[in-house]
């Protein structure tokens, strides 16, 4: 009926992951005022994305000219024909201010951008971008980081405290999301933009954090957040968006116009700013092959939304859709984690395990929307509800995630000065997963109902019964491969770095609405080349293709070419 794919899809554009190993230009302007000194590091860039693939009718709503049994996932697809879909002018400045003692300072990061394609109402072909959408993908100026830090001794051991908007990176994951690194929400809209940088991936949050080294081999770190913030997903109508949730959900199984048989959106239920904290402990075991071990705990509120609703006041003779739906962010998810980082011969190895207690997982939207028909008591697997009753659209389950990464630098590969290879594999397991005959969770592209009883709901009858194979499984897994060749002084003093990336979701379907890491059979590949000159200029051109997974991979017709040019000073 709808799809909540946009709520948590991993780094689908594997080209974004390539920034993990590609060269970074790093000159800066320094200043020294005696007591205070510091530097300003600015990068200005222009980037563009061009769509090179036509629409796949199997993921476009029937009422919009396609064959899909859902109209809640195609606005972004319909808005952009082949050709240019994004042209971004951007500037990012990092400002460091330090006291001459070296014991205190401040850090600020400011970002400004304008997408000349998306900042105009006339550029989208079908649905105008809202004011909120334009702020995410059209034009904005924002202060990302803004914090002060102070270093001191605690019982003659080094310690540091930070206060303000900043990020913390915990765990050992490089590319696959949904693990230990849950402190800061991610900005998926920034990750998709041409010329993105890793420093844009995490959204800074106001918090106090601190660390201390009780011994030379042991460190302890902790944080307490002073505000809650959510993941930033591609807004409705933008090129990579796959969930049209801004104002209403459509219940017509794709046959009727989107303004008919729709459920209006109500006020979102956001969590408290308080109650989010965590601690981490890392131990460097020199006698165990110089391995670093980490243990983690945190209590946090969901960054990704789930959909719930209010039952209708319909009657058995006059059923109407639910009164409304709204987004919820359940509180007090507890995360337990462990990690390692070591070397084995010429390979750098790292890995982590995370266990999330009471993680909210989205119920198949067709199931809970039918449950919201209220007094009609339509057959469903969620429950029986009266007029205006709250209909919870999610279940709470414990979820484990295991992932490991291997990195190696080779010499003289294909005549390159060096070749960097990174491989990461991840596995997600939902403990106590309901049997699909009893209840199904939301899966990518599952527009029709998986409940055979929904074939007999009159005007609301599901046209088909969706195969249970495409709803989320208890276990799902996949991997990513990244490679970069570096040719030093290849052309007029410039370094050339061809690069390639490949992602494969091997088995199982992950629940949508949290990370949605894996959709069985889905693949993505990126090839490109980066040129850097004098550590100041960088240019990159790449091609990204999405394929596999059939109509359940909602990006399989979104192949694109990206270009960006950067100058740092």
Automatic annotation (TrEMBL):
Pfam families assigned to the protein according to its UniProt record, in alphabetical order: DUF1302
Highest taxon of the lineage: Bacteria
Protein name as catalogued: DUF1302 domain-containing protein
